[in-house]
Amino acid sequence: MHQQPQYSYYAEDFPLEERPRRFLEAFAAILRYSNYGPALDTYVHVSAKCSLCTAACPVYQATGESRDIPCHRSELLLRVYRRYFTLGGSLKARFLDSYHLTDDDIDTMAEEFYRCTACKRCLASCPMGIDHALITHLARWILSEIGIVPKALLVSVREQLEGETRNTSAIPQVAMRDTCEFLEEELEEIYPGAGITFPIDVEGSEFVFFPAVSDYLLEADTLMGNAAMLHAIGASWTIGSENFDGIDYGLFYSDRMWERIIKAQVAEIKRLGGRVMLIGECGHASRSAKEGMQNFIPEDERVPVVNIMELAHANFLSGKLRLIENAIEERTTYHDPCNIARKGWIVEQPREMLRHICSDFVEMTPHGIDNYCCGGGGGTVSIDEIRGFRVMVGGQTKAEQIKATGAHYVVTPCANCKKQVSEIIEDFKLDVVRTGLHDLFLQAVIMPDGQRPEPRRVFA
Amino acid sequence: MLSEWLLWARGPMFRFAIALMALGMLRLMVLSALNLAAVARRSGDKRFPFAAVLRRTAGWLVPRRDALNGQPVFTLSSVVFHLAMIITPVFLGAHIMLWQRGLGLSWPALTQPLADALTLAGIVTGLVLIVQRILARSSRDLSRFQDYLLPVLVTIIFATGYLAMHPGSDPLPYETVMLIHVLGGNLLLILLPFTKLSHALLFPITRLVSEMGWHLAPDAGHRVAVALHKEDEPI
């Protein structure tokens, strides 16, 4: 084979020689140094092929194709493990003409493991407790070590770790500063005289702020809402000019990158003498920071990781954050980002505030820890060339859910979900406005002196 | 002739099956323990939510409402099938006599009508599970050889067990039925550690290993890069 295989996503050219051997070497090295072995060892024994996960997976429900059954997809990797890394598998291979890994198998994995959004919804449906998202996560790491990564993810991480700008959107520091100044001027119109700022490089601040960096380009209202809320509670916070990106695509394809990215973020917090890592409205950034901090950073260097909605909620409960009751009259619903909701971390906090500021808050069915993925999880939202599949197939269930609520606003506090839900609205022609929680705060936050926001239209 | 085979199946072969099953299960248990210890040692995050995982695991022992909503026939059949498979080998009067012979222990037996009901339920639900696996495309596409073999084997064991207990309604000679029953039972014991039946042992830790898989090992990425000679390669 001399031609690069084509996948539904773009990938940079990777070496084609001896791919099965190199795949197995990478697999072996990862098993040796990481903690995935015991899980695979148990899964290959107990996997019962019961098909109960079919009821949980939005991709399978939309396509009805067997290859999208979570258990079917996981078997692609489990059979490699069984054959090459278990006693039974190697004995069987010795005596019978059994399965062996081929280039075609690798190409199949490269395609299938990027149809999964790693939303983890199937974990709760598996009687054997098999975590198919963990298998997707691991398979993508192995694939990345032989050069198979969606280009969209790869170039972002390259820029973040080795590029000039040190962030995934390649925003120069000066552009970030300009944006902040512009947003400060906008805020002056909403809260005249309040003096809301975006503090940059303020050493000794309690919170060092890491939004998904794309917010600086795409989500002006979210950022302004963040700043207004932080101003209202009198938070000591700052943006670090040398690293202001909370995104960590390592979570989507490589533990090796995950660790490097969280270490770079922690270094910025240390440089500024910050005490808490504050993540903006972003699901994967919150989870990758929280789990990355706990796993990759030595105990004496760890700082607490807090999602900005948690911070707002704690202050809402203590009375420090005052919000206008029923400030929003249009019907509003809430989409749970999988990475913060599935384990029950952030489910009720935003809802308690939404029920306060919205006079007509409605839920999707199902929601909370049982929510459906928007279809853009697992980094797939960044891969524009698969939009047709991602939105029309992966997002089909979510589109139906949103439509069924009859809501005017769908609140989705996650940079990835925001992009995906916007595309769902566009492609399914839904009559809904996609927004973030803090975007709505621009109509609801009361400043300590009692100042209320000037009326303004929220940009969709 | 047949009775000699039966003696062999009940004697040496049964002892062999039990020994193989016990050794296989012991191996799985030791390997799992070593595995989990290695994870705990390597993890950066040493806190494991044991209580929560245990609660989730225990929650799976009762049929779940959402699973019932999804596939009610499959879920209910599966629960009854499991109950029959766990209760009858241990609490059937005729089996207790075997236990007493081997271990010198005995315990109260199921009443005959209850034992009959459980056995029949085992046969019916076994058949339902086999038919479901063949008819539902999603299950069919997932199935391996063992996924068909095991429910068939268990159903045969239930059916021959029932016939052996009711010689009056048995069209086959008693010894033939008994031989199939005992051979089937032996085969099931042998298969326990080597097939998905091993979840009988591993079920309590399945959710724990999933949780522990996400307890990532610090520096694993760098070590992998070194092992693959790419630590100095740009991204």
Short account of what is shown:
The complex is a heterodimer of chains A (460) and B (235). Chain A has three domains: 19-149, Fumarate Reductase Iron-sulfur Protein, Chain B, domain 2 (Orthogonal Bundle), CATH 1.10.1060; 166-316, 3-Layer(aba) Sandwich (Rossmann fold), CATH 3.40.50; 320-446.
Q: Would you report the number of β strands of chain B?
A: 0
The arrangement of helices and strands of chain B along the chain is HHHHHHHHHHHH
Strand percent estimate of chain A: 5-15%
Radius of gyration of chain B: 23 Å
Rg for CA atoms of chain A: 23 Å
Give the biggest sheet of chain A: 4 strands, parallel
Distance between the termini of chain B: 73 Å
> What is the first-to-last residue Cα distance of chain A?
48 Å
Number of domains of chain A: 3
What value does the average pLDDT of chain B take? 92
What gross morphology of chain A would you assign?
A: globular
Low-pLDDT parts of chain A are none
The number of helical segments of chain B is 12
Structural class of chain A: alpha/beta
| Number of continuous helical runs of chain A | 21
User: What oligomeric state is this?
Assistant: heterodimer
Q: Class by helix and strand content of chain B?
A: mainly alpha
Q: What would CATH call the architecture of the largest domain in chain A?
A: 3-Layer(aba) Sandwich
| Strand arrangement in the largest pleated sheet of chain A | 2-1-3-4
How many individual β-strands of chain A?
10
Shape of chain B: elongated
